Amino acid sequence: MPLSPTGLRGLAALASAAALVLSGCGDDEGWPARDAAPSAVGTLAAGFVDPSAPPTPESTVTPSPGSWDDVRPSDGYRVVLVTSDDDAPTRTLVEAVEGWAEAEDVALRTIEADGSDRLVPSLTDAMDLAPDLIVTAGNDLVDPMALVTANHLDRQFLVLGAEVAEPTHNVTATDWAGASFRGEGLGMSSTYDASSFTPERADRAIRAGVAAVLTGTTGIVIWLE
């Protein structure tokens, strides 16, 4: 028997609730209390970008390895990680974000987009939580990101191991040879290599990306060597 509209809405609400996984600091009732909005602790080292010639929107920069190491978020930083695929590269990225959040005492929540019809809603759910940063891991989220982010310029987004083809100023990406998925029907890059998603590279991706966001170097692709 077909479900009534009320029943369908009820199932949708249950699915949404089931898709939200809370982790990191804090409890199920809300984010940890904080006295002020977070900021960057530390400064970028020489070689991240040229201060005399800041990168233009949508450009790609190749920072010197480790030039982001001295930057971390201040206490109370709130991040929502949105994931889609369950392949090995995505799992590696997720584990890197979780490890970074634990090491830096970041308040982290994770939303798992369970099915293609949950990709856009998962990003909406993330925005509803009002974090300081929304991080995505999984190629299936690239096209939904392009759709959502341009309409929410007041939110900051970070894409790991992929790129939005035409990012707005609030979308930053960390990418490398072997990743480079861009969506928009372009298909998988001919250089795609799942083995390039190593724990060490994934850790650099989240740390370099967050350092860029914290210091206002957004709307670009950070190319990791």
Global morphology: globular
- Spatial strand arrangement across the major sheet: 1-6-5-7-8-9-10-3
Residue windows where pLDDT falls under 50 for at least 5 positions: 1-29
**CATH homologous group name:** Response regulator
Tell me roughly what share of residues is in helical segments.
25-40%
Q: pLDDT average, as an integer? A: 85
What is the count of DSSP helices, taking H or I runs of 4+ residues?
A: 5
- Which structural category do the helix and sheet elements fall into? alpha/beta
Task: Please summarize the sheet with the most strands.
Answer: 8 strands, mixed
H-E string: HEEEEEHEHEHEEHE
Q: In words, what does this structure look like?
A:
By secondary structure, the chain is of the alpha/beta class. It has one domain: Response regulator (Rossmann fold). Helices cover 29% and strands 18% of the residues. The chain has 5 helices and 10 strands. It has an 8-stranded mixed beta sheet, sandwiched between helices. Helix 2 crosses helix 5 and helix 3 crosses helix 4. The protein starts with a helix and ends with a strand. The N terminus is likely disordered.
Provide key terms for this protein.
single chain; 225 residues; alpha/beta; Rossmann fold; eight-stranded mixed sheet; two-stranded antiparallel sheet; 5 helices; globular; disordered N terminus
How does the SSE layout of this entry go?
Layout: H1 5-19, E1 20-22, E2 40-41, E3 60-61, E4 72-73, E5 78-83, H2 88-103, E6 107-112, H3 119-128, E7 133-137, H4 142-149, E8 157-160, E9 171-176, H5 199-214, E10 221-224
Parallel strand pairs: 3-10, 5-6, 5-7, 7-8, 8-9, 9-10
Antiparallel strand pairs: 1-6, 2-4
Helix pairs in contact: 2-5, 3-4
